[in-house]
Amino acid sequence: MSAKETIVVALSGGVDSATAAAILVEEGHRVIGISMRLYDARGTAEAAGGRCCGPRDLEDARKVCAHLDIPFYVADYEEAFRKAVIDDFVGEYAAGRTPNPCVRCNERVKFRPLLQRARALGASRLATGHYARLEGGRLLRAVDEGKDQSYFLFTLPTSDLGALLFPLGGLTKEEVRARARAYGLPNADKAESQEICFVPDGDHAAFVERRAELHEGELVDQEGHVLGRHGGVHRFTVGQRRGLGRSFGPTPSYVVAVDALTRRVVVGPRKDAARTEVAVTDVRWVSGPPAAPVRAGVQVRHRHRAAAAEVVPEGRGARVVFDQPEWAVAPGQAAVFYEGPVVLGGGWIM
Fold first, then answer.
1. Which residue, 299, 348, 310, 332, is CA-closest to 151?
2. What is the pTM of this model?
3. Cβ proximity of 37 and 58 under 8 Å
4. What DSSP state is assigned to residue 190?
5. Which is the catalytic residue, given 52, 53, 102, 105?
6. Which pLDDT band holds residue 2 (cuts at 50, 70, 90)?
7. Contact residues for 290 (Cβ-Cβ < 8 A; gap 6+)
8. Percent of all residues in the chain with a pLDDT value above 70, rounded to a whole number
C-alpha cells in the first residue's frame, strides 16, 4: 500500500489499535479514529476493566486521537451488541454450549458496520489492531503466533478483505509496545485485558446467572449413575476439571459432555473428553468451498494448537476427522481450518 489513502481505524482504547493508527499516520495517510460503544458499563464493576465498554477506554481512545491530531468519533452499537453478542452468549451457555463472543462480535457487529461508516466518511479502508495478515486476498496468521487473532476472523466475507488492513500482523507484541512508546502514545503502557470485554472479572457463570433462568442438575458418569448435583449447565464446558468438587474415581475427573435438555453434566477420565470426529455447522470458506475433502490444521479453541485432520465439506457444514483424538472439543466453539498460516475457513462445533 504505497498511495496515500483515507483510512478509518477502529480504536478500542488499547495499545494495539492505537499503535495501528500511529503507524498509518506515520505513513502519511489521512486517519480517522472511531470507537464503538458496545456495552454500557457505567456504574458497575465492569467499568473498571472492560475493553470497548468502559468510559475509561473511550477516553483513552480520545486521548490517542488528540495525540496523533486525527479526528475521533464514537459510534453507538450498544443495542446491536446486546442482541447479537450478549444475548447469544447467555443463550449458548444456558443451552449447555460454550460460546465465543469475540468471533460473534466480529461477524455480526464490528466489521461490516464500521466498513459502512468508513465509506460514508470517504475512507477507502478500515484498519484494526488485530494480529493477523492479509496477502493476495487471503487471511493469514500473524507473525507473532502467540498473539495471533486470525482464529477470531474466519467469518469475514471474502468481498471485504480488500478493504481491510491489519498493520500489526507483521510485528511482535514487544515491537508494538516499543513503537507505542516511541510514538509517545498516552496508553503505551496500558495493561492488557485477558477477559471478555463485558465480563472483565472473568466470572462467566455469575454474568449468565444475572440474565437467565437456570436450573440445578445432576453430575453423572458415562453409565448414567448419579454422582452428585451441580448449580447449572452454564458452569461447565467439555474438558473442564475445576468446579466438579472432587474426582469420582481413582483418577481425576473431567467434563466429557453437557446435556442441557436433561440438565446432566457427564464426567469421566481425561481420555474420554477427546474426540476423533466432530460435525461443524455454518461453515465459511475464505476462498470458496473446496470440491473435495482437504487436509488442514483444525483449531478448536483460541489457545489450542491446530490439529492435523481431514475436513469433509457437507452442504453448509463439514465433518472434521482428526488424525489423533483432539482434546476438549466443545459444542458452541469455533473450529477454524488452516493450511499452514493460511485460513481456509471455519464454522461452529455442533
1. 299
2. 0.93
3. yes
4. P
5. 105
6. low
7. 313, 344
8. 95
C-beta atoms surrounding 257 within 10 Å:
18
Residue with cell 487471511: 139
Region 101-117 average pLDDT: 94
Question: 6-183, what's its fold?
Answer: Rossmann fold (3.40.50)
Which runs of consecutive H residues, i.e. helices, occur in the chain?
Answer: 15-26, 55-68, 78-81, 87-94, 101-105, 111-120, 173-183, 204-209
**Distance of alpha carbon 61 from alpha carbon 64, whole angstroms:** 5
Third-level CATH fold of 215-268: SH3 type barrels. (2.30.30)
Active-site choice (52, 53, 65, 197): 197
Of 82, 80, 130, 135, residue with least CA distance to 109: 80
The ranges assigned to domains in the chain are 6-183, 215-268, 274-349
Give the whole-angstrom CA distance, residue 49 versus residue 259. 33
Could you tell me which residue, 52 or 261, shows the higher pLDDT? Answer: 261
Closest to 109 measured CA to CA, from 61, 76, 151: 76
- Annotate 172-183 with three-state secondary structure: CHHHHHHHHHHH
Pairing, β 274-285 against β 334-339 = unpaired
Q: Would you call 52 a catalytic residue per the annotation?
A: no
Task: Name the burial class of residue 119, with classes exposed (0-12), middle (13-18) and buried (19+) by CB atoms within 10 angstroms of its CB.
Answer: middle
> In this structure, which CATH number among 2.40.30.10, 3.40.50.300, 1.20.58.760, 2.40.50.140 belongs to the domain 274-349?
2.40.30.10
Residue type, 165: L
Backbone angles phi and psi of 15, in degrees to 5: -70, -30
**Residue 104 identity:** R
Written as one string, the DSSP assignment of 273-325 is GEEEEEEEEEEEETT---SS-EEEEEE-STTSPPEEEEEEEETTEEEEEEEEE
Question: For residue range 231-255, what is the model confidence (pLDDT) as tens digits?
Answer: 999 999 999 998 887 778 788 999 9
Element containing residue 90 per DSSP (H, E): helix 87-94
Q: How far apart are CA 199 and CA 180, in angstroms?
A: 27
Q: Give yes or no: 53 in active site.
A: no
